[in-house]
């Protein structure tokens, strides 16, 4: 991914954080995903009084991409208000693995805009996989 596209992905993740609905945790997260045809989808975390019904920003963005018919993700950016880097939770890692591969770039973004990239396989080296049913 070139620098311009990476910067745009990070910008979308930071902007998405502004739409976070996090009245319980006050922990805002924004994410953006880049598909193989260079389309960016973003999402924020959305909480619920029934905590188990909340959705993370990464899954929100990925589900929007999937809904639009996009099935291959080449990069994910994750932004928060934290001073340090946060990584996707286990549920998000599993969802990422459905649409990405080990080389997918995960861009972590701090509150002050510092970035760090890591290959997805470093975060989730052996994701559970099911064989997809053939039609």
Description:
This protein has 135 residues and is α+β, with helices and mostly antiparallel strands. The protein has one domain (3-123): Cytidine Deaminase, domain 2 (3-Layer(aba) Sandwich), CATH 3.40.140. Helices cover 30% and strands 22% of the residues. The protein has 4 helices and 5 strands; from the N terminus they run H-E-E-H-E-H-E-E-H. It has helices at residues 3-17, 57-67, 90-99, 120-123, and strands at 29-35, 40-44, 73-80, 105-109, 115-119. It has a 5-stranded mixed beta sheet. The longest helix is centred in the N-terminal third of the chain and has 15 residues, at 3-17. The model has no long low-confidence stretch (mean pLDDT 96).
Keywords:
single chain; 135 residues; alpha+beta; Cytidine Deaminase, domain 2; five-stranded mixed β-sheet; 30% helix
